[in-house]
Amino acid sequence: MPFKLEICSFNLQSALIAQQAGAQRVELCADPEGGGTTPSLGVIKMARAKLQVQLYPIIRPRGGDFLFNDEEFDIMMNDVALCKQYGCDGAVIGMLNADGAIDKKRCAKLVELAYPLGITFHRAFDWCANPFEAMEDIIGIGCERILTSGQKPTALEGAALINELVRQADNRIVIMPGSGVRANNIVELKEKTGAEEFHTSARALVKTNMQFINENMHEDLSCVMASDNEITSILQLLKPE
């Protein structure tokens, strides 16, 4: 199969759904509202024990921007070391300087520490000042993949830039569209971008099974979960004709 599908999984159950549905890789995250942060060590260990597909935890100590201080970088170094210790296949990183350039020095340290794990550079890329210079920097650092929405809110909106990046990359690095990727647009994305790997959370909101709900709390207890039907549909549409 020439195309690959990565599922951004915000909990263990979503990761297991992704595997069962046939996805090739799981990006393991916490905090969907914050755009994805590093999952707990307990979740990483359990996921590694139960998954046979590739497992790439995100290394991001907080939501918000991608300008990290020294303490946050130390946290990231420790988390990369733990991913390596517990047998992950790779990790997902991304750091910028204040001027919108790639933080090459510290990203390179994470890549070196992680070796031989694979490294994806996440959507911090979409906030960089010059995407083509940034891609060359990321290639030089030693990352194997860039996750991007083409510097637009969704990958379909950014498809033209993604296609330019794919062509300039010339197989030196994988350009993987993500954000808003669904079964209803995957064929159009495939045609417009020329990409061979795609990223989606395939998310659905699952209602609580609690029988008692305290109505005074005025909170929705629904959980973000991957949809096996959505993943299966995307994979079916990615199959060569």
What does the model show?
- The chain is an alpha/beta fold.
- The protein has a single domain, classed as Copper homeostasis (CutC) domain (TIM Barrel).
- Helices cover 37% and strands 17% of the residues.
- The chain has 8 helices and 10 strands.
- It has a 4-stranded parallel β-sheet, with helices on one face. Strands 4-5-6-7 form a 4-stranded parallel β-sheet.
- Strand 4, helix 4 and strand 5 form a beta-alpha-beta unit.
- The mean pLDDT is 96.
CATH class: Alpha Beta
Query: What structural category arises from helix and sheet content?
Result: alpha/beta
**Domain unit count:** 1
Radius of gyration: 18 Å
The main β sheet shows up as: 4 strands, parallel
Overall CATH architecture: Alpha-Beta Barrel
**Number of distinct helices:** 8
pLDDT < 50 runs, ≥5 residues: none
Portion in strands: 15-25%
SSE ordering: EHEHEHEHEHEHEHEEEH
State the assembly state of the protein chains.
single chain
Number of strands: 10
Corresponding CATH superfamily: Copper homeostasis (CutC) domain
Q: Globular, elongated, flat, extended or rod-shaped: what is the shape? A: globular
Termini separation comes to 11 Å
Structural features:
single chain, 241 residues, alpha/beta, TIM Barrel, 37% helix, globular
Element layout with pairings:
Blueprint: E1 4-9, H1 12-21, E2 25-28, H2 41-50, E3 54-57, H3 70-85, E4 90-93, H4 104-114, E5 118-121, H5 131-141, E6 145-148, H6 159-169, E7 174-177, H7 186-193, E8 197-200, E9 203-206, E10 223-226, H8 228-238
Parallel strand pairs: 1-2, 1-8, 2-3, 4-5, 5-6, 6-7
Antiparallel strand pairs: 9-10
Helix pairs in contact: 1-8, 3-4
